[in-house]
What we know:
It contains three helices and 48 strands. By secondary structure, the chain is mainly beta. Among the domains are: about 190 residues, Protein Transport Mog1p, Chain A (3-Layer(aba) Sandwich); about 80 residues, Ribbon (Cystine Knot Cytokines, subunit B). Strand 35 and strand 36 form a beta hairpin. This is Intestinal mucin. Keywords: Disulfide bond, Glycoprotein. It holds the Pfam family VWD.
Amino acid sequence: MAKCIEDNIIEIVPFECPPPQNITCQNGKKPVLVKDEYGCCEYYACDCFCEGWGDPHYVTFDGHFYSYQGNCTYVLMEEIRPQYHLKIYIDSVYCDPVEHVSCPKSIIVSYNKLVITLTNHNLMGGADLEAFENNEKLRLPYARNGVRVISSGLDLILSIPMLGVDITFGATGFGINLPYQLFGNNTQGHCGTCNNNKADDCMIPGGILVDDCAVMADYWPASGVNSELCTPPTALPPVGGDVKPTSKPCQAHSYCNLLNSELFKECHPHLSPENFFLACEYDSCHMSNPAVFNEVFEYNCEDCICNKTSKSVICKPKKCPDVNPVICNAPGFVLVNVSNPSDPCCSEQVCKCDASLCPPMDNKCTVGYSPVLQVPDGKCCPEIICEPKRVCVHKNMEYEPGTTVPVAQCQECTCTWDVDPKTQLFQIKCSFVPCIEKCDPGYEYVETNHNDCCGKCVQTHCIVNINGVDHILKEGESLPTTNQGCDKITCTKVNGQFITDKHTIQCPTFNISNCQPGTVQQSPDGCCKVCVDQVKGCQVQTVRDYINHNNCQSEKRMDLTFCGGDCTSFSRYTDPGLSSCKCCQATRSSNRTVNLGCINGDIVTHTYVHVEECGCSKTNCH
Length: 622
């Protein structure tokens, strides 16, 4: 604990908790230890317990008894300052065709956004209990959103473990148990305030206390719970001690004294008969048709007679027919004795569900399916149902609609939104891959091996772009480009690849002095000047060019020699038999080698003749 001394000086000292003082709970329950608001010290407090039974009789959280006949949905309990968002309502209806009697038909529990209704469909006989969530019947046991609902066979039990809240509802009535630690001094409604003080239990909205809780109850109709619209009284009830009774107080019937007699003496230390006597007194005073002498009637599952001689009621246990044996074979069912709906005083054997006896479940599903827990009608144990997902399945893989599925080569497959009627999964639809057989210029479409989906475009020509125009060349074909056609591009095929080679025509040395007059002209390709040479003797001449042999070619141009020139030849007219003819031939030569590159990628060695000297050799004249 922090203790302020002076001048902003604070001293931390241990806080000594006073010893807990024992108290007596007005509702008859045992006090419990709770923490104070600082969580340091403990003290005794009384948990909040409200109950109702009969037609109906109420006992508030603080033990105040009252009877109230209502025909509406009322607030049993709600928080004055909402903290845990818990509200509890009771739906009371008139349930007797003769007497002016109301019975609790339903208990409605609102917790956060969840609304659970516990309902009894049979108000005048054996209980027919069901639980609903938003008008949908629950399969018990139920556990969701922090709320649990189970059936004990006689009652429905709703619990909120996080808050320590327990609510029971059955044929005999209802009970609400709240921890004081969470709800103390913060409740209002038919169950009153939870502060161990009966004096302030009869409080109407606005914090106004009235003298009679039966009057208070009219002012707590529920709103927004069901379609029934009940309005509270418009005028405030009279308060204070100046209201005088208008009639003589009613005396309880003699049989109410049985509750205080030796008959129930052993029960008194455990459960006070006071509230039950008050309920009996109320019921006996409000009966419109009391019993007469020698009248036979049934009460508390006993056959009774109003005896004239003794002026008392004599009862004996009611005789019930023999119970037919029942065999429970289905999993989870156990044999129990319950009240017979047609005769609540007699029992019958039925197969009751006990989920704790159910065998373990296999919650595995195949690919494409998800396990869903459900309890089929007429069965006790939950079963796993494999429901289809919104997917396609192929080779144990799930695919979302619209995605590609790799099913088979040469097919395009997609997961669609169409449902397979057999599997209830989405269907996979496929189509063959379309083959594009149109190829670019210079290429041709050819089929490949059978494992390929489509053929392919294979290059068959060279493609040359000159000034933005594509030209298609066959293998070995040349195309002049610039420089008046003296630059040429040649298409060749090397290692299966079409390539182009650009080369320039090399003109031999031109000397116009060696030309016969008037014979100078352009070569056929227009690149070089040529002429008719003047008469020259036989001599070695040279030309620069590639060496080609069997689809193989030298890497560069070579100096190639040959014999050329005039040799003296004559024939005399005067002597026809006298003639002499000579030709220019090689008189000395040598063999040389060169490496040639072939189309298939091979490199071969080629031998060619290199002329070194020429001369005129005599030959026959023609």
